[in-house]
Amino acid sequence: LSLLGRLDAAIDGGEIWVAYQPKMDMKTKAICGAEALARWSHPEKGEISPQDFVLAAEQHNRIEKLTNHVLNDAIRVAAEINRRGLDFDMAVNLSARVLDNPDLVSTIQSILARHGLEPRHLTLEVTESAAMTSSGRSIELLENMRALGIQISIDDYGTGFSTLEYLKKIPATEIKIDRSFVSAMDKSQSDKLMVNSTIALAHSLGRTVVAEGVEKEDTLRALEEMGCDRVQGYLIGRPMPYEKLSALIPTVK
Ligand code: G
Ligand code: G
Ligand code: NA
Ligand code: MN
User: Fold this and answer.
1) What sequence ranges are listed for the domain EAL (predicted)?
2) pTM score, two decimals?
3) Cα distance between the two ends of the chain
4) Cys-Cys with 237: which of 22, 66, 247, 252 at CB 3.0–4.6 Å?
5) 233 ligand 1 Cβ < 6 A
6) Nearest CA, atom 20, ligand 2
């Protein structure tokens, strides 16, 4: 409860900030984007896990405020990097609760316009369960996002119910293989097979694939042989402040 009492002030005062974890393109080996991850550096409690404060925000009607805070920073940063003359995609996590509000489409549209970011450079990461609410409103909202040119990624793929029906219904452009499968690849043949067949399935449906949780060179090599499009994980880079990410990315023009 004390956490919640401070949530508004923490957002407004900058205690809650956004870390960026780089993604690497397998073909060019260049950083091609990042995932925005909310961080709360609390003056007394130290680092609070986003799992805890995202849940608190969801339960107390602050999730829209938190989401807008992250979207605004992430889109501003992505626009800045794209102005350097290279293609850079920014991914933002959306929880089920915000997918229930149709206003999100116009909110995101206006943040994109404010910072001058092309919609195709924004990816919304949603889990299957968040996308497949019983009302069907989430799917409609995601379809409206797609119509604007925004990319949709299915986060934590493989951990939910993962039916082929969901895979067909969710208007995703990308599938993000959960790190539990990726990190087990070097020791478990069955995880390796699942990752391989998920990549093939995604490609046959015209979706690109990101593997998250890549920590080892062996895993990176195996994913490359499997034709995985992009990778994310501690081997490439940890979530970091924007200044650090910025220093890793060259200026092209
Ligand atoms: O950064 P870390 O690995 O600790 O993230 C833990 C969880 O918090 C992940 O599931 C991540 O998706 C989630 N998370 C981080 N930032 C945000 C955010 O801005 N919005 C939502 N909904 N979830 C987030
Ligand atoms: O649920 P979601 O996929 O958004 O969660 C992302 C979380 O995974 C973040 O909290 C991030 O810090 C964490 N993460 C990112 N890369 C790695 C990795 O290589 N290993 C581990 N253990 N965690 C990672
Ligand atoms: Na994510
Ligand atoms: Mn994930």
Assistant:
1) 1-253
2) 0.97
3) 50
4) 22
5) no
6) 213
Q: For residue 34, what are the β-bridge partners?
A: 22, 90
Q: From the CA of 50, give the closest atom in ligand 1.
A: 8
**Identity of the amino acid at 28:** T
Q: What is the pLDDT of residues 161-193, one digit of tens each?
A: 777 888 889 999 999 999 999 999 999 999 999
- The helix/strand/coil state of 97 is helix
Model confidence pLDDT, tens digit, residues 210-246: 999 999 999 999 999 999 999 999 999 999 999 999 9
CA angle 124, 127, 131 (to 5 degrees): 80
Domains: count for the chain: 1
Check: complex ipTM more than 0.85 = yes
Q: What is the CATH number of the domain that holds 129?
A: 3.20.20.450
- Side-chain-facing half-sphere of 13: CA atoms under 13 Å: 10
Say which residues have a Cβ less than 8 Å from residue 198's Cβ, sequence separation at least 6.
157, 158, 175, 177, 181, 209
- Show the domain range for 202: 19-37+63-247
